[in-house]
Amino acid sequence: MLAQSLTSFPDAAACLPRCIGAGTPMRDRVQAYDWDNTPLGPIAGWPGSLRAAVSIVMHSVQPMFLWWGEELIQIYNDAYVPCFGVGKHPAALGQGGRACWPEIWPIIGPQIDAVRHGREARWYADSLVPIWRNGRIEDVFWSYTYTPVFDEQDQVGGVLVVCTETTDKVLAERRRHALDLLARRLLGCRSEDEVRAAVVHAASDNPGDLLEVVLLIGEEAMAHPPADLLTIRGAELQLCDELALSFRLSPRLPLDGAYRQFLEQFTATVCATLSRLQSDRALAQAMAESDRLNTDLNLSSRIKDEFLAMLGHELRNPLAPIVTALKLMKLRSGSNSETVHEQEVIQRQVDHLVRLVDDLLDVSRIASGKVELRKETVPLADVLNKAIEMASPLLEQKQHRLLVDVPTVRWHGDPARLAQVVSNLLSNAARYTPAGGHVTLATRIKGSTVQIQVTDDGNGIPAQLLPHIFDLFVQGNRQLDRAKGGLGIGLALVRNLVQMHGGEVSAYSAGAGRGSTFTITLPDSVAAETAPPASLAHSAPAPEQGAGLRVLVVDDNQDAADSLSELLGALGYRPEVAYDPVQAIALAAAGMQDVAILDIGLPGMDGFELAGHLRKLPGGDALKLVALSGYGQENDKTRSRQAGFAAHLVKPINIAELQISLS
């Protein structure tokens, strides 16, 4: 009996409808709900179709929702509960659809009716269905299906909803697209006003997230923004300190981490553009300043070149008659003159002045890239002998002892320039070595490399001066006697010419009073030995002096013209002198000369114009033209050749060059 009484009480769990289940909040809530007071009635009386649909909903892990009957009574599962947010759950359970969703009924009502009457399922992807939750209407995006559920009469008894909220995905894509559009708009901005306009357009492109965006720059960014706007400052992002953006946000979206991150990225993008504009402005200003400086530099360089050329011309003009007069003195007096010593002094000083002018012009031409090396293969000894010859007046004057060690090798380079370099070093050594000192010129050959050293036991170089010894216009301390002082350009010229040969030059000194050593290294310059060219059977005969040629000398410097005329007469020529172009034309018209030496820098009509007039006179076609100028740069000589001049003499005139040009 006891056993019978025990089995007569049914298991409580077994009494629960298995279609609903138990053990989860929503299953328990559905089990406990008073369905008797709803159109569905008690669970026990539910038809099989309803029980089957409820079973699918309650046992699914996918958010599901069931509307049943004409009033669309609602049943949903645990997975759907988070979709409600705060405000509708749990009142939505057992509630009619229209009463539960009045805010979206204009959207979903027709969709439900379409399924109920059309008896076909419908699919909606990432659809905006804003619902009331968390105390406000929120923009919510869903992907969902409405599926008809048929009852026992084969009618649509309910609608099954299988849904997924895609708000996060849709907003992320929308915001990413908005940032892309913003970046593209900002890419073409060239001013702050254009950036402001781009920001306004960006807000209108994405009204779902941004109702208004205000760009604040400078003092505006530092002021307190309106309370109804969210302001993000560039400084907060460690970007632009003087920039802020104030956003009027959508009231239908929560200000969560993703929303704020979007606003920060928006601000960072604008900051980057303004930084680019500032950099562009700074770069443009720097480039404009650089262009201005380059223009000024080029102008200064051109003015400097013109000044140096004019300086050379003006210095050579007075030198020309001095040199010519000195040569006349030597021709007339020979070696028995009582003024031989004085002539030698004048010659040395004139040679020194000519060297100073040449060095000054060379530095300018090298600095402006107007000097080209004229390389050839020559005996190195010939080059160094020429350098010694150029420096010998100063060496002899100070009674220095010169020791020379030069091997017999052939060297490839510009012999005139290397002679100039070594001569400068020898002259420097002589200048800064007390009288009676020792100067050594030594050469070492290492493979194809030539190393030339000039050593003296003179004043030496102070340690603080040594690093700058090759800089332009740098000089050592001078004694009271400045007669042989230079301009501080010789060593700068040495370095430039050596570097043009692909070599390098260095200086060493143990200190003041302990002498100095300058070393030139010229790599890949030793030429292979070749058989010497066969000597000519007869050397070219020297030009006959004068040969009675009539020579017209035209120079507005009367001293220069007269002294040159006297020199020509002493050499056997028949000179005629004119001090201006009009006089020159008159002399030529009276009887055309054989040669005309024309000063290029004549007043009123330059030498080129005068040459043209002389050519037009009777016999002018056969007239030989020789240019005379204080300008001796290559472009000056080129212009003379193009104008029909047979030679271009640079003041002061070298007698040998003069005779060659007249021959």
Automatic annotation (TrEMBL):
InterPro entries (UniProt xref): CheY-like_superfamily, HATPase_C_sf, HATPase_dom, His_kinase_dom, HisK_dim/P_dom, HisK_dim/P_sf, PAS-like_dom_sf, Sig_transdc_His_kin-like_C
Residues forming the Response regulatory domain are 550-663
Q: Does the keyword Phosphoprotein apply?
A: yes
Annotated catalysed reactions: ATP + protein L-histidine = ADP + protein N-phospho-L-histidine
Q: What are the 4-aspartylphosphate sites (modified residues) in this protein?
A: D599
Gene Ontology cellular component annotations, sorted alphabetically:
plasma membrane
Where does this protein chiefly localize? membrane
Stated EC number for the protein is 2.7.13.3
Looking at the record, the residues that make up the Histidine kinase domain are 310-526
Q: How does it sit in the membrane?
A: Multi-pass membrane protein
Annotated GO MF terms = phosphorelay sensor kinase activity
Alphabetic keyword roster? Kinase, Phosphoprotein, Transferase
The record's top EC class is: transferase
Where, subcellularly, is it found? Answer: Cell inner membrane
The protein, known as: histidine kinase
Q: Which organism is it from?
A: Duganella alba
